[in-house]
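Notes continue from the previous slide.

Worked example: a multi-chain complex. Inputs as given:
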Amino acid sequence: MTRLTVNGAAKHVDAEPDMPLLWVLRDELGLTGTKFGCGIAYCGACTVEIDGVAARSCVMPLSALEGKSIRTIEGEPDAVVRALQAAWVAHQVPQCGYCQSGMILAAASLLRSKPVPTDADIDAGVSNICRCGTYQRIRAAIHAAAQSLREAKA
Ligand code: FES
Ligand code: FES
């Protein structure tokens, strides 16, 4: 039995210790907003935040998650995620949408550690793949979200 927190709620998961978090979320907890793309930590479709840091859930075993706090796209948005969601809408970022939950959580993690990211920071911090090629709009939306968070603090 592994105890963890998912989107603010305590969960006890009785599954194999080597089960990847992606499948714990989707198959054990019914949270299907986190997507499978490659299964080898490459594409980022499965990105969630673990204790506020982006992680590829497809290669994160349940055994590493005792006591951890996980945020998925289904979680109640905090200020950072809310700012990103608003910027995503304003910049009409999504196309097919498949990569987008991972993109938003990767962007959230980036803004928590770098409130004023450069283009290079975004490229390094959000290395997720978008088959629809929304990279320019993602970059613009992250800058806009960062700006709105700064204005909210001023
Ligand atoms: S499914 Fe996890 S990185 Fe591609
Ligand atoms: S919006 Fe289609 S893969 Fe990114």
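Summary box: The chain has two domains: 2-71, 79-153. Residues 45 and 102 are 5 Å apart (CA to CA).
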